[in-house]
Amino acid sequence: ANKKLLVLAGDGIGPEVMGEVKRVAAWMGSQRAVGFDIDEALVGGCSIDANGVPVTDATMDKAMTVDAVLLGAVGGPKWDGVDFSIRPEAGLLRLRKDMELFANLRPALVYPALADASSLKREIVEGLDILIVRELTGGVYFGEPRGITDLGNGERRGINTQVYTTSEIRRVAAVAFELARKRGNRLCSVEKMNVMESGRLWREEVTRLHQEQYSDVQLSHMLADNCAMQLVRNPKQFDVIVTDNLFGDMLSDEAAMLTGSLGMLPSASLGAPDAAGRRKALYEPVHGSAPDIAGQGKANPIATLLSFAMMLRYSFDLGTEADLIEGAVSDVLDRGIRTADIAGTGAAQLVSTGDMGTAILE
Ligand code: NAI
Ligand code: MG
What we know:
By secondary structure, the protein is an alpha/beta fold. It has helices at 14-31, 45-51, 57-65, 88-98, 122-125, 166-182, 197-213, 224-233, 245-259, 302-314, 319-334, 353-361; strands at 3-10, 36-40, 68-73, 103-109, 129-135, 147-152, 155-159, 186-191, 218-223, 240-243, 266-273, 279-285, 337-338, 349-350.
């Protein structure tokens, strides 16, 4: 049966980069017998303009029932003034919250042709292929109590609370173990159990889950500050890293800079499995709507195409088809075909969004 996709192209360059994904999806249907039924809806600023809200209930209903959601990007200066609850980002937040997307997957992969775009030396990053799994719905960004209280005498106190429960830790760790099995079979769990109670619980629960269900995966533990150092000292030592919301925020941005190109970075967010074992999932590039280049055919579609490849691999177990896309991207880069954002080194030919899509398809 065809896979049901909801495409939310969004604002700015979102529709431009998503156009190339639709071409590749159509190619898959005609050449690889992997068909997609694509439904499209508005999210972000374009939805505010059309419907007064950044995402409608009808669109949410669709997002909750399809096999996977693909998102472009939301936002732009046009909507910067409006109240936060109806700002473009609120659409994304509602999707993440209602779909309960608790596991955020951020790969950092360095293509040989772009190794010099990294902020590190070529030999440290060439061939890098790691995946950071960040817990996305718990921890210090949401824990109670929180707030700013007045203590009198001009003194104020700001509070946030890091809270994790057994089930929150186990469900994100389970995602990470499963992903490790599909990759290099190694998982590094990152916390600060030396100074944090939540970190101690994190290590105990990950260890217990490993013994119960995933003893075939090679598990190691690392303190978060050491992990931050190791990522720049020797990032290739890692395969999959799993960590909490706060550390994951920092470490995934750090890892992103090992690759050096925002237009190349895909991501996925996964939720709980349904009765059939299928997880709710949303795939999107890490970059935003790039209003500075929107409408000019300059946007790099690779981050969104690689997000589509992640969808094939992680939602549908279509690893061969995902390999095809990632291999085509690598080939095209080897031939020096570049959009402007990655033109830095080894560029033989500067191309538009559409021509990059065509080169990858070919
Ligand atoms: P941005 O990621 O949109 O752009 C940063 C810089 O990178 C810009 O110079 C842009 O031209 C360039 N860039 C980004 N993606 C590119 C691509 N695919 N190809 C070529 N160049 C690319 O971040 P910025 O400028 O901070 O935010 C712009 C808007 O996007 C804001 O409204 C922001 O709120 C929104 N945003 C949305 C996100 C999302 O939808 N998940 C994430 C980040 C920002
Ligand atoms: Mg961040």
